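Progress note, project year one: complex with glutamic acid.
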Amino acid sequence: MIVTRFAPSPTGFLHLGHAFAALTAARAGERFLLRIEDIDQTRCRPEFEAAIMEDLAWLGLDWEKPVLRQSERFDAYRAALQRLEADGLLYPCFCTRAEIAAEVARAIEAPHNMSLGPEGPIYPGTCRHLTDAQRRERLEKRAAYALRLDAQKAADKVGALSFTEKAAGPQGEHGVIAVAPLLFGDIVLARKETPASYHLSVVVDDAFQGVTLVTRGNDLFAAAHIQRVLQALLGLPAPQYAHHKLILDPSGKKFSKRDTAVTLRSLRADGLTPYHIRLRLLG
Ligand code: GLU
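Model obtained:
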């Protein structure tokens, strides 16, 4: 049984890119689920969630109920973090964004010290090197901190891993892809104001919802590497992946929330029907 999901964040109205992602997931799945990725409560709004459901229904999609909301899953994320913590794979990071930027700028002077990950420069590991005493002192001062994964320890623990890519990814990859566990470096898994990062919450929830095939845009292809590592560390099953093309604007860029002309509601107001949308996107 192939189980797929569409996992939008309710931070704006759905546009053509989302419609393609949702239609792709619904077509690929024998069961099709919806997950609302609303961890960032400062950006997510209930009216956008309502609009997402209205637009998907208008497109003719039907998803299994109940809908999973990430804002209701904080206990599950905490439990996952506790497990990683108990395995000695996390460390607190007290660096501010400005300190990291300064460290990275210094590293640019000596480029052999800096590497670039899929989400930008890789964290230089400053807080990984703190002594126990330094760590205690900072924790006692209650400095705000993030929890980072020690990527090298994680790599040593999981050993060789792979994931299955069923569509051709951005570089045409499909088949069995060897995981590069250090690709993202020591990623942040939780912050004071965000109890779980995107990678952690997605992995926990895909397993909880029984998703067997993750379909999503190929801008997230690299994410499968670190998500596969987290699945292995947490003893979760590995879904297969099918990263699809992105629907781009005429200048070749991704649609942004500001491109109001391509939201499904404005296309609908212009008189387009779901049939037109499907024809334009799926041919
Ligand atoms: N919430 C993510 C997005 O809106 C999708 C996450 C995923 O499919 O893994 O792009």
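The pocket of glutamic acid is lined by residues 7-9, 37, 202, 216, 220 (CB under 6 Å).
The chain has two domains: 1-72+248-283, 73-242.
No further modelling is planned for this target in the current period.
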